[in-house]
Write a structure and sequence with these properties.
Layout: H1 6-30, H2 41-115, E1 121-130, E2 138-141, E3 154-157, E4 160-168, E5 173-177, E6 184-189, E7 195-200, E8 206-209, E9 222-225, E10 237-245, E11 253-258, E12 267-272
Length: about 280
């Protein structure tokens, strides 16, 4: 049985031609059709078709813009923060330096005030080293024989005596502090003129020995050098009595707090007691 396919093929070719013609006709009509608002229909269709792409492009552009601005804003903020931190550090260093100079000025004024009461010559020096202990009983200063310093010369700081030179090189000297267990200093109670011997105990306080139990020595009494040890001139501040009581022996048990801060002093003066050729 034969089937005639020619009519169907012709119908298919007609549809292929007709459909594009109809679409073209609709497009031509849309170019002329207007909505009530006066907008051409084709423009509305184009806008509807473009809308997703326009929205996506706008969102992407806005996101990139935000990221870009935030990046530079954050970068600028970090740079500003770094500059502020640097400025604060510099200001802190300057403040510390000013405070250091202020404290040094106070120490030097106290030292000058004490030097003015001494009839002997003095040599200014700085502490360059201490023995590695909290209560350092030996220090080193930056003056020596080349500067006129010799052994057994008194060393004072702001407040009072601190020790004596025990070893001298050309450019430096070793100073034994009055708190050293091997140190002894002739002293007397300023109020009563009661003499005694101040002995280093290795801690922050001195022991005042050879003061009789019957002597009136009270807490708060000032102790000065007696001059009897032939090292320290008479009348220099040594310390203040913080404890005084009778003991089982014939001598009182007296503890004296040094007038000078033997832990924190940094500037000293060496009293030149001896004449040099």
């Amino acid at each position: 049985m034969s089937i005639d396919l020619a009519p169907k093929a012709r119908e298919g070719r007609i549809l292929y031609v007709l459909i594009p013609l109809l679409l073209l006709h609709l497009m031509l009509l849309s170019l002329q059709i207007e909505e009530p608002g006066g907008t051409l229909l084709v423009r509305k269709w184009v806008l509807l078709a473009e809308a997703p792409f326009l929205n996506a492009s706008s969102a992407l552009s806005a996101g990139v813009s935000r990221i870009w601005h935030k990046y530079f804003w954050l970068r600028g903020s970090r740079e500003d923060n770094q500059r502020l931190q640097d400025t604060l550090r510099q200001m802190s260093l300057q403040a510390n330096r000013i405070e250091e100079l202020k404290q040094e000025n106070l120490r030097l004024r106290g030292l000058v005030s004490l030097k003015d009461s001494i009839s002997f010559g003095t040599i200014a020096a700085r502490v360059v080293s201490r023995t590695p202990k909290y209560l350092s009983n030996v220090i080193y200063i930056d003056r020596g024989a080349k500067d006129g310093v010799s052994v057994d010369e008194p060393v004072i700081a702001a407040g009072g005596i601190v020790g004596r030179t025990i070893l001298v090189s050309s450019w430096n000297a070793q100073v034994q502090l009055i708190t050293n267990p091997d140190a002894s200093t002739g002293g007397m109670v300023d109020r009563t003129r009661t003499p005694g011997v101040l002995k280093g105990s290795g801690d922050a306080l001195l022991e005042m020995n050879y003061v009789g139990n019957n002597e009136q020595v009270n807490a708060g009494d000032v102790v000065v050098t007696s001059g009897l040890d032939r090292v320290y001139p008479k009348g220099l501040p040594v310390g203040k009595v913080v404890d005084s009581r009778k003991s089982n022996s014939v001598f009182r048990a007296i503890r004296v707090e040094p007038s000078a801060d033997l832990v924190r002093f940094e500037e000293v003066s060496v009293i030149i007691m001896k004449k040099h050729d």
